[in-house]
Amino acid sequence: MRAWRYCQHDCGHAIAAVSYAAAALGWQTRLVEATADDALAEVLGLDRREDFGAAEPEVPDALLWIGNPEALPAPERLRAALNKVHWYGYANQLSAGHESWPDIDSIHHATRKSRTREPSSLNAEPHLWSATPALDLSFARIARQRRSAMSFDGTTRITTAAFFTMLACLLVRSDTPPWNTLMSPVAVHPALLVHRVDDLEPGLYVLVRHSGALPSLKQAMRPKWLWQKTGPDYLPLYFLLPYDLRAVAKLICCHQDIAADSCFALGMLANFEIALKQPWRYRHLFWECGILGQALYLEAEASGARATGIGCFFDDEMHAMLGIKDHAWQSLYHFTVGGAMVDQRLSTFAPYEVQP
Ligand SMILES: Cc1cc2nc3c(=O)[nH]c(=O)nc-3n(C[C@H](O)[C@H](O)[C@H](O)COP(=O)(O)O)c2cc1C
Questions:
Q1: Count of alpha carbons within 13 angstroms of residue 199, beta-carbon side
Q2: How far apart are CA 6 and CA 286, in angstroms?
Q3: Measured in angstroms, how far is the CA atom of residue 287 from the centroid of ligand 1?
Q4: With CB atoms counted within 10 Å of each terminal CB, which end of the chain scores lower, N or C?
Q5: What does each C-alpha distance from 71 to 6, 86, 122, 140, 340 come to in angstroms?
Q6: What distance in angstroms lies between residue 118's CA and the mean position of ligand 1's atoms?
Q7: Separation of 262 CA from ligand 1 center, angstroms?
Q8: Which part of the chain is the Nitroreductase domain (predicted)?
Q9: How far is the CA of 298 from the centre of ligand 1 (A)?
């Protein structure tokens, strides 16, 4: 189950990475949501059971359109074009034996997608945002230097300007990577455990990425939270509780020190009702979380800090801390941002140094 979940997070990171890279070349990226999994498997040649072996089938995740969004072809046209193709090659068998994980099969079947209508409008709200990054690095440099922090120093503080800029980059803006990939309404909102941000009281904050979610988020959590709007006007950031949450963050993140030693840690609260109504959207919720994570990775680098994705967390502990009792909102991914400790045992080489 955990493996399946990590693959979905990774898919979100990959979607965002493609979207940023495409934008650097002047191209738009769109997630083609309407396609059924079976149709996508057919287009990619993954439905060739005989060439893949029954024990190790491949399944498609997502179809991305890169280019002019006006020219997005209907999946039927793609399939028609591929009707006469001849597939070459056979998949290698990955392992000599096969370990059965029935839960992976069941979540795969429960979240299988059939054809749906393409969502037409993005839930972008106008944000009058003019903040500039703390450091002005080129995209290529940020993308290449990005690494996960192995540990944080527990002392670095970031400025409020850097913090607000990072959060502003998590807001949806049309035709802007990585949010240009998603046409469905925003479904994920970060709950932030702030430890070391200058001029900002340590404690619990929530970034409400779409104003429509505010009443439901408020209702899901403890009634005594403050919900005090804080930060610049353009940022829908709410202060819920002043508190030193370092020990809580560490506990929630499977006792990992980086959650306490960071400048801030966060959990991504997903509108889980969407998945309860349309089970295949369970995957999309993880993707949205992964996209948020990739944005944080790059924005942290751009501000001179570093980030680390946290797939290992105790969701029940997070929900108990927030006072979430039902399934309307669920935390699906966590993240940490801080001052990285450089591990002297690691060497760094230029990308693509070894030419074939
Ligand atoms: C979905 C996901 C979950 C992760 N979970 C953790 C985690 O719980 N703890 C941790 O220290 N690092 C975690 N990481 C960081 C990975 O260990 C790291 O991304 C991986 O080692 C590759 O290194 P890189 O990000 O520097 O390229 C996670 C990364 C991803 C993408």
A1: 8
A2: 9
A3: 15
A4: C
A5: 33, 26, 18, 28, 43
A6: 32
A7: 15
A8: 274-338
A9: 14
What 3-state DSSP class applies to 206? strand
Take atom 7 of ligand 1 and give the residue whose Cα is closest: 310
- Evaluate whether 295 touches 237 at the Cβ level (below 8 Å): no
2 close to ligand 1 (CB < 6 Angstrom): no
* 217 residue type, one letter: L
240, 202 contact by CB (below 8 A): no
* Nearest alpha-carbon partner for 196 in 317, 297, 339: 339
| Domain 139-338 classification at class level | alpha beta
Q: Which of 7, 310, 342 to mutate to test the pocket of ligand 1 (most atoms within 8 A of CB)?
A: 310
How many Å lie between the centroid of ligand 1 and the Cα of residue 308? 6
Ligand 1 site, residue 12, Cβ cutoff 6 A:
no
Q: How far is CA 83 from CA 36, 45, 52, 58, in A?
A: 17, 11, 20, 20
Contacts of 162 (CB under 8 A, 6+ apart): 134, 303, 304, 305
Q: Whose CA is nearest to atom 3 of ligand 1?
A: 311
Domain with CATH 3.40.109.10 in the chain: 139-338
- Would you say the CB of residue 10 lies under 6 angstroms from ligand 1? yes
CB 289 within 8 Å of CB 16: no
